[in-house]
Every structure is written in C-alpha cells, then in structure tokens.
Amino acid sequence: MEQSLLQWFVDESLLQNLLADQPTWILLLLIVVCIVMLSKGADWMVDGVVDLATRTGMPKIVIGATVVSLGTTLPEAFVSVMAAYMGNPGLALGNGVGSIIADTGLIFGLTCVLAAVPVNRYILNRTGWVQVGSATLLVVIAVWMLLTAAEGEQPMLVRPVGFFFLALLAGYLYITYVWARQGGSVMLEDNGETEELRGLALCWLMVTGGLILIILGARVLVPAASEIALRFGVPEDVIAATMVAFGTSLPELMTAVAAVRKGHPEITVGNIVGADVLNVLFVIGAAAAAAPLAIPDNFYHFHFPAMLILLFSFRAFISMNTDGMFKRWQGVWLLSVYVIYIFLQYALNIEGAH
Amino acid sequence: MNILLATDGSRFATQALEYLRDFPFPQAGRCHLVTVLDKRAFKARKKSDLSDEDKDWLKQAKKEIREEGADFLEQQARVLRDRGREVHTLVRTGHPADEIVQAAADVDADLVIVGSHGWTAAKRFMLGSVSDKVLQYAPCSVLIVKQPDEQTSIYSDKVLKILLAYDDSQPAKRAVEFMAALPLGNDTHIRALSVLPVIHMFRQDIKQRLSWVWQEKKRAAKAALKRIAKEERWGHLQVETELLEAEDVSQAILDTASRDHSDLIVTGHKGKGAIDRFLLGSVIGNISHHAQCSVLAVRPKK
User: A37 and A250 in contact (C-beta within 8 Å)?
Assistant: First the structure.
C-alpha cells in the first residue's frame, strides 16, 4: 500500500493514464473541482498570511517573499530538478526563466492594472536589488560560460554554479529574516480593524494547508485541462505554449487573484519578488546542482533580454514611485512587454523558454 | 575470464553456484570460490574478560569453523571441476562485503557472482545488504543471482532470455562488449532496450516531445539501438530492439523484464558518486533490488 502511494507521488504518468480514460464530463467536473481547490487554497493562505503578519509584526510583503514564494515555486523546482536529472536542460532552464517572465510581466502587470499596489520602499528597495541581482548574476554567469566555452561546445551552467546558487539561497533567506526583524518594529502595518486574530498555529496551518491545496489543484488541473484540449483538437504546440507553460505559474496567479480580491496586494508584490529570486537561486540552482544545464542559443538573444527588460523596469518603477504606489501605466508596460514576448516567440518560431 | 563466486552456504548462494555452472561463461580462466567468516560473530566484549580456557576454546572454535568453511568450499568446487573448470577456494575472515571486494581485487577477477537474499527495503535499511555493497564497490563486473524458488534451472524456459538495457553511454557499450564476448548458444534471445525519460508532471511531456532537442535525442537513440543490433560480433544471434518512453527508467526496464519473462537483465554500471546516488538514486540499484531475475552490471576492471 505505502509503495503504491509513493508511486503516485513519483510517477505522474499514472495520473495521466487515469485522466486519459475518463469521459469528458468527468474531466470538466475535475477542472471545476481543481479551480475551487485553487481559489479556496489561495483564500486560506492569504487569510493566514494576513493574520500571521499582524501577529508577528512581520510585514506581509516579507512573508509573501519567503513562505508563500517558497511554496509556490516548489512545483517548479521539482519539475526542473527532474528535468535536469533526466537530461532535459531546456525544460529546467526554461521553466526558471519562463516563470520569471510570466510572474513579473503577466501576473504582476495584471495586478498593477487591476488594483492599487502599494510600494513598501523600506523592504522593496533591498529585496528589489536581490531580485534584479540574482537574475543579472545568472545572465552574467551564462555569458561568461559562453565566452569561455571551447569552440563548437555548448555553454553550460556547471554544477558548482548550482551549489553556489543554493548557498546564495540560504544567505537570501537569512538576510530577509534579519531585514524583517529590523523592519518589523519600524513599520507595523496599519491594520485599523481590531478583528479577532487567529492563533499562530492556526495561521500556519492555513498557510501550509492553502499551499498544499494550490499545489495539488495545479497539479491535477494542468493535465486534465490539457487532456480536454487535446480531445477538442487543439494543436499540441498551442497547449504546450499556454496550459503547460502556464501550469507552473498557476500558484502565483491564484495567490495574486486572492490577495487583490481581499485587498492585500502587498502579498502579491512579495510573492513576485520572492518567486523571481527563488526561480534563479532555488529552481535553476537545484537543477544545475543535480546535473549541468546546457544553455541553448535562443536564451542569449531572446529569453535573457526579455527577462532583464522586465526586471529592470520593475526595479526602476520601485525607485520612481516616491508616492508609495505602483501606477497603472507601469502595469500596462510590464503586461505589453510580456505580450510582445509571447507574440515574438510565436512569430519567430522560437523554442519556448517557459 | 576470472570469476569469483561468493558463497555463504545459503540456498541463494547455491543458486549462484548453479548459475556459474550452467551459464555460458567462457571455459578459459579460473574460478575462485570464497566464503567469509563474519568477524563480528567472534567479537568478545574484551579480551581480558576471557579466561585462558575460554581463549583456547575460542581459538579452537575459530579453527573448526575455518576448516568447516574450507570443506564446504571443496564440496562446492567439485561441482564446477566436474565441468572441467579450474577452481580455487578461499576462506577469509572479516566483514563479508569488504572481504569479497578485496578478494575480487586480489584474484584479479573479471566478474563477481553473489546470490541475493531478496530482502525487503526495511530489512536492507536495517542490516545493509552484502550484494548491494559488492555491486557498488567491486573492482569489476558483478552478477547478482536471483531465481524464483520454483525455478529449477537458470532459464525459466527452454531459451535464455536476456534483456540488455542500453543507453549508448560508455558503460552501456562496455556491457555490449561483455555480452558479445560470451559464448552464447543459439537458444539465446537478446532484447536491447532503451528508455527515454519523460516528465509527465504538469504535462511537461507535451512540451518536451515538441522540442527539437527531444526529436534529436529520439532519433539518436533509435539509431544507436539499430547499430548495436546489427553489429557483427553477435554472429548468428538475433538481437531485437525496443525504444520506450517513461517517467521512471528503472521501472520501465523492470516492467519489460517481467513482461518478457527475462532471465537476466544486463546493464552498464555508471559508478555514480555517493552524493549523486543519494540525491538521484541509481538505476542499477533500483533494478537489482526489485528485479525478479538475475542482474548483471558490467563495469571496467580497476
């Protein structure tokens, strides 16, 4: 029994085969159930984070950048490490870079367009640098590998780089903790209402329980939706570029939707910033530590530049917004860059990063 | 071919002996039978706790056990000598796995044969498995003999069915060389199997299969399989090929072996480091634990 459970956990093809045998209406039902799971999970998590923030005095943005981001990038990290181990470097690197682009361009852009997002400059000024810094470091190392690679050899992210990123990850988590402790006392968030707060244990339970629901929901939703799309005759490459690519960013999206709806967009900001850092240090780091990642050419002239444009715009917006709010046009800018990126990827027939 | 067979007198070791007797190994070369007296069985709390009388008794007991071991090996050796093989026997004292590995180096073995107790994962974790350690540390190829209890010969059927797990790596090529050098009879079926790993999570397999890297890989794997099947050194033997895609490579190999009722799984030993094994697991380790049949891991002599 325990062995078969473990197999379900490890071997996704079992789930896929099971889904493939179901009639369409069951799949549709399953999709609805998954969406409910995702939104309920996100609701719980956001509620948990808000109370956790008020109780501990830690800013929501910090919890968003650490706990929530770790949770939402976990599926990506898992997929990427598996891909790297199985000798599929395009998938591992693509998932990391593609998620940064989707998180910053699509999800954060959309959040900015739809809601007023406050800039917590005290925190963002510093974590913003880490966010831009880690991605830039990735590109710098990649370019360095390109320059030092022997003639006719593909540039690689070698395993020491992976371990280096993982070490940086530990440092990042520690330093966020230190900053949060310094910042926590300075700026307790203005939570005017004195509602009854949940206990600490319950908060954690809601955050982790919510995360588990989100991850499980995304994990079943993507194959179920893909199966339906296949049955309706949607071409495979379209599915790959939309649903499958989107699958790993789904947790961030659901968190963003729930956070905005409940009026705590700071969580989204934290989640995006944290997810960007973790995508480099955790997802790509762990994958490179498992097996060296070859860097395909199109990353240098397409995916890396797109990522840097988005991140440096984001960084510039933080500095520009002295009045403490992200502007709507800034969201539109991020979103347009993302749309152009996707369009170009199709038009130029570039192998997807995401 | 120099062969070292490790025996502990259990029925699993007897199966290993039968395997050595019946399998078409080259006649040339020596066979060594080794048995290891487990040192830990003789450990007293402290030497000084023992009276002189006890010490004498212990000495005597050790000597007797050694003699018994030597007699047992001679008996076993006769089985092989009847088949015209040159057989030497060897009794050693110490930790079984360490001594087997050391003995393999001492006698310059090309192949170590051990029986498998077929322990469950829990027991393996608690006790540690000798065959596991030999598989990991032996300075040469290792054959782990496993037979269903009801099976009386080394073949389950009239023919010897060999499943060759091939991934076009250097170790896999060595496995092909090793097999091609054996005097295999006409009653041998060889199936060369390659498994390409796909990731099903979040339907990444759709993305993966669309990429040119994957197409390239698949084409290369097919070509490699075709190439080794056509090689001349197989002589009269027919080699079938099969290419699979699966999430879990070792599981796919095991499934194919049980579907075909294979008698032997052959694969190259990659010699991964301890960290890699811990993080990623090893295909050969998984196969040797879970296979229903014998497993041969080919690795170059150190």
Answer: no
Sign of CA dihedral B287, B289, B290, B296: positive
Q: Per residue in B232-258, pLDDT tens?
A: 888 888 899 999 998 888 889 999 999
Question: A58-186+248-347, superfamily in CATH?
Answer: NCX, central ion-binding region (1.20.1420.30)
Nearest chain B Cα distance for residue A271, angstroms:
21
CA distance A244 to chain B (A): 6
Could you report the per-residue pLDDT of B129-140, keeping only the tens digit for each? 788 889 989 999
Output the CA angle A88-A345-A353, nearest 5 degrees. 25
Query: pLDDT by residue (tens digit) across A107-165?
Result: 999 999 988 888 877 777 788 889 999 999 999 999 999 998 877 778 889 989 999 99
What letters, b where the CB count within 10 A reaches 16 and e where it falls short, cover B274-297?
Answer: eeeeeebebbbbbbbbbbbbbbbb
The total of other beta-carbon atoms located within 10 Å of residue B22's CB is: 13
Judging contacts by C-beta atoms under 8 Å, the chain A residues touching residue B203 are 16, 222-223, 226, 239, 243-244, 247
User: Kind and range of the H or E element at A83?
Assistant: helix A69-85
Q: Provide the pLDDT confidence category of residue A351 given band limits of 50, 70 and 90.
A: low
Report the 3 state secondary structure along A151-195.
CCCCCEECHHHHHHHHHHHHHHHHHHHHHHHHHHHHCCCCCCCCC
Find, in chain B, the residue whose alpha carbon is nearest to that of A242.
Answer: B207
The Cα diameter of chain B in Å comes to 78
User: What residue type is A50 in one-letter code?
Assistant: V
Q: Judge: A248–B199 Cβ closer than 8 Å, yes or no.
A: no
In this prediction, the residues of chain B whose per-residue pLDDT falls under 50 are none
User: pLDDT at position A11, please?
Assistant: 64
Task: Give the right CATH number for B155-302 from 3.40.50.620, 1.10.10.410, 3.30.720.200, 3.20.20.60.
Answer: 3.40.50.620
